[in-house]
Amino acid sequence: MDEGPGAVSPPTLAVWKFSSCDGCQLTLLHCEDELLQVAGRVRIAEFLEATSASVEGPYDVSLVEGSVTTPHEADRIREIRAQSRVLVAIGACATAGGIQALRNFADVAEFTRLVYATPDYISTLATSTPISAHVKVDLELRGCPIDRDQLLEAISALLAHRRPRLRAHSVCIECKRRGTPCLLVGGGVPCLGPVTAAGCGALCPSYGRGCFGCFGPQETPNPEPLIEAVGWGSDEAVRALRTFNAAAPAFRHASEAAAARGRIGGRR
Amino acid sequence: MTDDRVIAREDLDALFDALHRCGYTVVGPTVRDSTIRLAEIAGTRDLPAGVTDEQEAGRYRLAQREDAALFGFNLGPDSLKRWQLPPDRTVWRARRKPDGELTDFSTDARSGPAGMPDRIAYIGARACELHARAILERVLLGGNHPDPELRERADALIVIAVQCGEAGPTCFCASMGAGPKVTSGYDILLTELLDADHHVFIAATGSVRGEELLAEVPTRRAGSEELAAARATPARAAEQIQRKLDADWVKELLYAHLEHPEWESVAQRCLTCGNCTMVCPTCFCTSVEDVTDLTGEQVERRQQWDSCFAVDHSYMHGGGPARQSARSRYRQWMTHKLASWDDQFGTSGCVGCGRCITWCPVGIDITEEAQAIGAVTHGPARATPAKED
């Protein structure tokens, strides 16, 4: 990365997978037109979704997909960190634990007993945790999956040694910029946009669907009044908040508070 | 200027035709996604005929009217701001040569995401919109270095205003001296008159351009009854206004109560989502950032609508964000709008359009907040439920 444009040796880029569905890695492949430009500016050292070729570290940039759910992964992320100059966590799994963080609210031993014929062979952790719970992360790209334009922006910024344009304000600001009328105020459609971080360009609302919150909590989320305004009961609020970013602290606290309300008052 | 004329409902399209012949894109209210939006419209067939809007704090719905009024609604979320200050635009672009020097520098960017036309005629502007236009124009163009592109947009704008005959529950323009009666700031002013067998528009002109345009539309002289009905129209709207804000005192009262407990109370409810600032017709904050592409050869300076409810908005080098709490951000927004705007630009920043009340997902009401802080010293107390259904 320290070599400027035109330097002889291009920076190396590695893409790593932890507990995840590969969707965020596929976002890089979906860059299509820009992919050749990316390939021209960096040397892809590790990217199993694209190539079986592998180059030894250290790496200038590592994109890390997935959460840490096994003891092996907890060790492996430390090795990757040690080999990476810049480490970018990509996607809801890597930044918040992902859907699999639903285990954090339950008993994993019980799951393994139910799912596997011989649970003794399973070595897994009680929780699914984001990369930042284990090593220092330099940049996070949110979303399930990540946004293509944000990924290209992050790579462009890293190549140009500038700060990437990544904002964590609400999705509402993106809806208004693109001219999407508010689904919640205008149609009573449940929408997590006001408590969710921007970055997707307000994609779902532009198709008439309320925001699912896949980018996780915005920078100063305040879910309680939103739950009240939408009219969600306890169960509905818990379901809305426990999807892609269930373990993100702000969503976790709000869903636990909603669950507690449900236990006290019954189904609202 | 000239005597008021009467345009029959069926002749109103001639006004669109005249504007199109002059090379204008007509922007006006039209129903899209169950909302009255401002968008490019071709003629009266695109106007929200027979449609009205029902507004409350945090709630907006369309409903059918019993008549076929073309302007029988109040306001949607859009304002002229979208054209005065496009939500996302390239300020300049350039190319970097291998030696690092910038070349092919261009400010002729005009490349908003919607490909916004630069010569527009805005039909349907209400009194609050005209006041908001002037306030925003003062902010954008009143300084020593006005943006030439925004200057051109402002100069080219033609305004066909419409007199309000009904007020919505979130309107408080009368308190802010910004309505409901249109008194200036238009090229043509229309007042819609409608009864069982009579659908006409009383047209007044406010500029030479307006006179020239109206000359291309079939009209007749207005009768005295029609003129009386036109005069009664904004008076009827004024009587329907429910919300109040004491504009004469609010500045001093807010300044005197910067530590009022209400700021904490509103912060408990505020989502810091920024919707109020986005729909406000005068909120002008933008972020300006330089963007490079993957090759590092193309560079653009981009300007986007931003909000004082975003943490980064108050980021200062070395100190981080100055306004971290929701309390400080809501207070900043409201005191700027109603108090320090006056110190900065010589007017209030609020026109009482009520959009921030309607489009707040949790229905926070700036007039109620002012009341809670003690700014409203008279006027009947309201007892409107924050949310029905």
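qc> Residues 376-389 of chain B have pLDDT under 50 and may be disordered.
qc> done
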